[in-house]
Amino acid sequence: MKRPAPAEHARHWTLDPAVVFLNHGSFGACPRALLVLQSELRARMEAEPVRFLTRELETALDASRVRLAQFTGTKPEQLAFVTNATTGVNAVVRSLSFRPGDEILTTNHDYNACRCALADVAQRTGARLVVARVPFPVRTAGEIADAMLAAVTPRTRLALVDHVTSPTALIFPVEKIVHALEARGVAVLVDGAHAPGMVPVALDELRPSYYTGNCHKWLCAPKGAGFLYVRPDRQEQVQPAVISHGYNTPRAGRNALHTRFDWVGTLDPTPWLCVGAAIDWCGALLPGGWPELMQRNHALAVAARRLLAQTLEVEAPCPEELLGAMATLPLPPRLQGETPAPGALVPLQLLLPEQAGIQLPVVNWGEPARRYIRLSAQAYNSLEQYAYLADVLRRL
Questions:
Q1: Is 314 contained in some domain?
Q2: Same domain? 211 vs 312
């Protein structure tokens, strides 16, 4: 079958034109201009590594952090760069002290890597991992908040809250959940892996204890760019996942958060240094800036879900106002199949790229498990691409 044309903005990306790429949500895709910038930064670093890493890096990190702070509605002093949101989650949960009987709260919509970090800490400390059962399908944001708050007890010490869920693509009502939990003395760690660039983020208004997000997804920075926000009253206890010189070597004019996190051993810092440029580049892609880009991607995700739901004759599992730039849909009974072994790919996820040139996640999720597809909508996508996916699934 003939591949459909992407959107006109696809010319800015280096994506394979033979692939109908509907999976921006998994790892992002970096525009060509930002890859060029990263190459230039790497060339500077490799031309004189000692000067770049020991004398120039701090100033460059600070400049990028200022731009990220402006975009996320906070102060640079409350942000540290990390390689990804999972690293941010690990840094927080491994820095906290738990006692036997303490409870760590999460939901059944959490990201497996983050669940594993919680489970490991709970096992080592004797704490109890509590999983709130948020319904899916879900009718209102209130159902999400009610399910999570109902699982809180006097022993709850930390709650992991997704801003945008990975398996189900729901926007959680984080304002209501965070404010309610923090008012009860429960520290909240928001997993915002998908949020920055998909939905507005205002950290000083939200004021969780901790918030971690990715810049390589919807901000389109190079891979390896993430951040951790730590509220000032929580900064003293937080250490990076990798302890390095900042543990016992304070630096004049720098707070403890930056001293600990800015150097965690030799690595390629260029993804972090591209964050400010990525924010500016994406913000200039459409005349209306970031608001127009977010709205454009949301509208495309909604239209794509409507088209797929009608073609496959399935019910949409949540209202459109709970969607950002992704949407999850159940596959019809004829495409459900057996649940694969743990760690194995669903056969359909292999068939789609190999036979139809389509790249998107096909996952088994829930209790009992059902098979879902998750659509992503970025500036390079067109509605014709989702119509092509619908036709392929219909033929199957």
A1: yes
A2: no
Q: CATH number, domain at 105?
A: 3.40.640.10
> Which among 355, 374, 363, 316 has a CA at the least distance from the CA of 337?
363
Please indicate, yes or no, whether residues 276 and 333 belong to a single structural domain of this protein.
Answer: no
Q: Is residue 147 part of a domain?
A: yes
Give dist(CA 6, CA 106) in Å, integer.
38
- Look up residue 199 and give its amino acid: V
What is the phi/psi pair of residue 376, to 5°? -120, 150
In this predicted model, what pLDDT tens digit does every residue of 303-344 receive, in sequence order?
999 999 999 999 999 999 999 999 999 999 988 876 777 766
What pLDDT is stored for residue 343 in this prediction? 67
Domain-ending residue, one of 263, 281, 299: 281
Identify whether 33 is part of a domain.
no
Distance CA 56, CA 58 (A): 6
R_g of the chain computed on alpha carbons: 21
The reported pLDDT for the residue numbered 2 is 84
Spatial separation of the C-alpha atoms in residues 302 and 297, rounded to whole Å: 9
- Of 281, 309, 336, the position where a domain reaches its end is 281
Annotate 59-117 with DSSP letters as a single string.
HHHHHHHHHHHHHHTS-GGGEEEESSHHHHHHHHHHHS---TT-EEEEETTS-HHHHHH
Query: Is the Cβ–Cβ distance between 257 and 77 less than 8 Å?
Result: yes
Nearest C-alpha neighbor of 81 from the set 199, 294, 247, 224: 224
Tell me the three-class secondary structure of 120-151, residue by residue.
HHHHHHCCEEEEECCCCCCCCHHHHHHHHHCC
Give yes or no: residues 275 and 299 share one domain.
Answer: no
Look at residue 77 and tell me if it is in a domain: yes
Residue 302 has which token pair?
A: 């909604």
Calculate the alpha carbon distances from 56 to 18, 36, 63, 274, 276 in Å.
Answer: 41, 20, 11, 15, 17
As for how many domains the chain has, the answer is: 2
Regarding pTM above 0.85, the answer is yes
The range of the structural domain enclosing residue 15 comes to 8-22+289-395
CB burial of 62-98 (b: ≥16 within 10 Å; e: otherwise) equals eebbebbbebbebebebbbbbbbbbbbbbbbbbbbeb
Type and span of the H or E element at 330: strand 326-330
Which residue ranges of the chain lie beneath pLDDT 70?
338, 343-344
